Amino acid sequence: MRTLCASTLIGEFFVIGFAGLVAMKDPDLSTSTVWTVSGIVMALSVLLCGMITRPGGVQLGWALQIALIAGGFVVPSMFFLGAIFAALWWASVHYGRKIDEAKARFAAQAEAGGNTA
């Protein structure tokens, strides 16, 4: 699960950065505000890569997905991109857990098979 989720988060890192560039064109927003918010969210996406397997890591990832979708109020294309990344996040968590379960099952079978020989 960790690899799939981290890949999604790194993709989000770049999308957040590009959204910051688009948000800079809004005359109502100051450059410092845009980059403070974008920088914090980008840092969170990278930090979450290391927190995926810890308690609350997946839930923080969901909070980030909600924040990305909410970013659509500033950059309208983020409604779409946020929804796409939320779907990718769901798939990463769902299929990542299945992969982890399969790996554990195969490791247990290999251990059991190694002891009987």
Protein traits:
117 residues, mainly alpha, 4 helices
What does this molecule look like?
The chain is mainly α and about 120 residues long. The model has no long low-confidence stretch (mean pLDDT about 95). It is built from 4 helices and no strands. It is about 85% helix and about 0% strand. The two termini are about 30 Å apart.
Beta strands, count: 0
Poorly predicted spans: none
Mean pLDDT: 93
* Structural class estimated from helices and strands: mainly alpha
What sort of overall outline do the alpha carbons produce when their principal axes are compared? elongated
Biggest sheet features? none
Q: Classify the helix fraction into a percent range.
A: over 70%
Approximately how much beta-strand content do the residues carry? under 5%
Question: How large is the count of helical segments?
Answer: 4
Order of helix and strand elements from N to C terminus: HHHH
From the alpha carbons, calculate the radius of gyration and give it in angstroms.
18 Å
Distance between the termini: 32 Å
